[in-house]
Design goal:
Blueprint lengths: L10 H16 L21 H9 L3 E7 L4 E8 L5 H12 L5 H5 L2
Antiparallel strand pairs: 1-2
């Protein structure tokens, strides 16, 4: 297994880490990227996963867990465009139709 850790505190290392992720994906390795909001509720998605997919010219396979129905949902392939912010917004809104684990804990 390969792991790519992105060092967000050092921009030069982060760029090298992202290049490694891109090369892995281009070689055919499927890359799993941890979801946003796994430790706290967030109101947006970070865009790194979209940037990596766009640079590697590969789609994002969207998968979610709906905690309300206790189901894993394999969604669709999302092809990032050149508008990263709009793509992130679209993905966030798409995932928003499902109930996350934190939604179950929040009043």
């Amino acid at each position: 297994a390969e792991f790519v850790f992105i060092n967000r505190r050092n921009i030069n290392e982060a760029i090298q880490d992202l290049e490694k992720a891109k090369q892995l994906m281009q070689s055919g390795i499927v890359l799993w990227i941890a979801p946003e909001g796994t430790r706290k509720k967030v109101g947006h998605l970070k865009t790194g996963f979209l940037r990596i997919a766009k640079a590697a010219n590969v789609p994002v396979f969207r998968v979610t867990i709906d905690y309300k129905t206790k189901t894993v949902i394999f969604l669709d392939l999302f092809y990032p465009t050149d508008n990263v912010e709009q793509d992130a917004k679209e993905c966030y809104e798409f995932f928003g139709q499902y109930t996350g684990s934190l939604d179950q804990l929040m009043p």
